[in-house]
Amino acid sequence: xxxxxxxxxxxxxxxxxxxxxxxxxxxxxxxxxxxxxxxxxxxxxxxxxxxxxxxxxxxxxxxxxxxxxxxxxxxxxxxxxxxxxxxxxxxxxxxxxxxxxxxxxxxxxxxxxxxxxxxxxxxxxxxxxxxxxxxxxxxxxxxxxxxxxxxxxxxxxxxxxxxxxxxxxxxxxxxxxxxxxxxxxxxxxxxxxxxxxxxxxxxxxxxxxxxxxxxxxxxxxxxxxxxxxxxxxxxxxxxxxxxxxxxxxxxxxxxxxxxxxxxxxxxxxxxxxx
Length: 274
Fold this sequence. Notes:
Elements: E1 3-5, H1 11-15, E2 17-19, E3 34-36, E4 61-63, E5 75-81, E6 90-95, E7 100-104, E8 114-115, E9 128-130, E10 139-141, E11 143-144, E12 151-153, E13 161-166, E14 170-174, E15 180-184, E16 188-191, H2 207-212, E17 269-271
Antiparallel strand pairs: 1-2, 3-4, 5-6, 5-8, 6-7, 9-16, 10-13, 10-16, 11-12, 13-14, 14-15, 15-17
């Protein structure tokens, strides 16, 4: 996967660089795995904005992704496709019994490869196994937190985790954030890292490209009126003040810890992220 740059015909295009999408093998998604998406533009059932800076953008259709990988038949990778709803690419699988499904496309997975899930699956890219069956030191993604619930960790473009050790019932997994966490050995994970690694090098370049992505403009609190934001008001350029950085609703921001001290899952965290 490479990056595409433009001739500098304008100030925005001068810095803009996007993915060249050479990994994508088809632009036509599988119809049976599509669902319509309605856009709420950040509004609740009463029509009031509850999430700011959302709205507009290109119309999308939702792709149903198989995060459980509980079908243990062999499957062949038919295509690698773009998914507008996530940063990673997706792969279309055709199982030998005729069933089709989408999975997250692992890095270096190619069309025509055979993938499988289950305890007896081979240790190779794209295969899904219980953590108990994965060798220590392996790169993994698509990790379950609860047995049978489906993958919740390491799902974005370029994400990968490392299985560092195994204990009686739990394995130590180093997550992309640097956090080391205990995960039950019966939880499933997929071998390899998530594809589309160059996503992090993308430069949007112009405001319009953000609007295509359903994002509306954000305004700094310091340029608002005092009635609109804790940072607002004052004569000219005023500092934030003694209270420190605040959210628009007066809560501390930038470094303030919001995790509950007695959260049950804290017992599974061996080392916190930096």
